[in-house]
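User: Hello, can you help with two protein structures?

Assistant: Certainly.
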Amino acid sequence: MIKGDNGFVPSVPLRIAVRGGVDTMALLLTEDGRVRGDGDVVFHGAPTHPSGGVRLTETGHGTSWLELGLPGVEPRIARVLVVGSTEHGAMRDVVGLSVEAFAPDGTSVARYDVTDGSGETAMVLAELYRRAGGWKFRAVGQGYANGLAGLATDHGVDVAEEGAGAGAGAQAPAHAVPFAVPPAVVPAPAPAVPFAVPLAPAPVPAVPYGAPPAVAPAPAAAAFWSYGPVFEPYTRAGRDNDVITVKGLPPGPVVVGLDVRGDGYTGLSVLDRRNKERDTLVNSTEEDFRGRVLATVPGNGTLRLKLEAEGPWRVEVSPLATALRLTAEEVEFRGPEVLLHLGDVADLAIHYRGDDNLIVNIYELGGHDDHTALPEDENVVNEIGERRETVPLPEGPLVVQFEMADGPWRARLEHP
């Protein structure tokens, strides 16, 4: 890429290499272009975002890594800035300055070599931002002559200056981030996703993410992130009955999201090569249907879907890794959904408030090497009507599929 270029990247956990030996930082911004507080600033003194979705590590050899879990970025965050700064000299003096994003399988999905640095000491190198249901990467290269303090202030960060306001009882503002002096040490939360485990140090160019580390293997759950195809999400909108064809997809399991505005019947099926219905994904009379279901792309890379709907609709086909991760925080849904469990053994607490069937299946991915198909599922819930269920889950990685759930429901993890 050259300065100003942008393009879609897969909505999956990415590892972003910042090369050139600069100090690296990430700013998580809302729609108004500002941070919500100092928790949205990830830098050497606070290397992990409170959500666990962004983490900063350094491997030496002049390379820093930002580990950015796009599927887990909070909905209120619209942009993530990748920032570089230097305490000695200016950005024009930095040799080999670049920023590069890697997909979980080690594929480089975006790269920007910064060649026009000048006398500034801080620069927004790149940004990742939401667009049309997915994420884009933009090569920014915007320098700040007033340095890191000016850059941070422009995005809502109150920068605490060393010695400013000194005196009895003087305190830094609530959102102050003291870049000039180390902040008080606050224990960072444990990494929320397995890609947060750093690879062993490697010389530039860095070993692509997904390659075996030289010292110690990543946890078993990390294998999930190379599971299933990685691709740019496909979206399409229309009205009433239709046949949807998506070509050029890697074979394997994907998530199909469907949103229909209407009060009639909604059906979604996979068509086989004979143009016959093979798998029924949705069969609902729910008004204003919304949900996400599992489908498998066949070996020819073409997914064909038969949609029955009355009213406007929107379909999105996205990688399995975009599914929402289960945590101890209760989340509310309506309709079928695809979730991920990546941690240790836990119990899944469910409160279903619908009148019809509740069907929940799990797929154990550990030890399953065929990434073009899911393993055999295990049905853990098949009940009718409103109810509360607690289901024991084995160690992840797991796909937890709410195959049928007409009506509102809630779910969260409980750890024994």
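That covers the first. Now for the second protein you mentioned:
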Amino acid sequence: MNPRSQCLACLQRTPPSVFEAGLWIAVEHDAGCVPNQTLDEIDELTRKISSALPMLPAAELAQPMLRQLATLGFQQDDVAHPKPHSALLHKVVQRRRGQPLALAIISLEIARRLEIPLEGVNFPGHFLLRVPGADHLLDSCGGRRLYPRDCRELLIRQFGPDMQLKAEHMRTASAQAILQRLSRNLRHLHQINDDLLASLKDANRVLELGVGNTTDYLVRASLYQALECPQAERFDLEHALLLSDDPVQRLRLEQRIRTLPSGHALH
């Protein structure tokens, strides 16, 4: 199977193998990524963390585990100059630096191996973690506890005072949602670093992993525009038009579609 098929196959397991699926995503961008080698590195990392954990019930070990990861050097990468390696899991394991989501995926894998209950939370702008049933969230970058007030402050810092905390922000992320978010992150990182073909791979994977939103189709349409693929661009603009409920956006999309040659989109 090719890397994309391997990634999707990991999702069919019970339970899904999110970390390994993420490694196959990395293979799509870096032929030097050897999933089994990184899995061995995670084995060693798990042993180090396990030996340093306190003698507590498993439900109380998530925060100590995250703190041990921080002690071993796992930190959020430089946000001023983001590069794709901050979201490619094998690079994050090697460099011990990465985006919050990548650090969370590594944390979830180690927690799974140590039978520590932990789940991902698809919080806007900064992926978080939670012990099931807890009244707080955990930051994957060091393990800080976040209560509702902290979550509101995090939203304001990232999106401004008009952003309201909603129940949907605190929902548990499925394996599929985690990988879709990882693909969106990589899509953005490759795009801002001028690797449009790599970004297109990620854009296609986003839509293969789950239902796409208006932005997903608009971003891919922009990539097709830059790559001079007008029929594929039209296909995505028409899908964005169907999904959009913004009258102004719909008008602009209709105008943009009219400037493109007619015909069937080819992928």
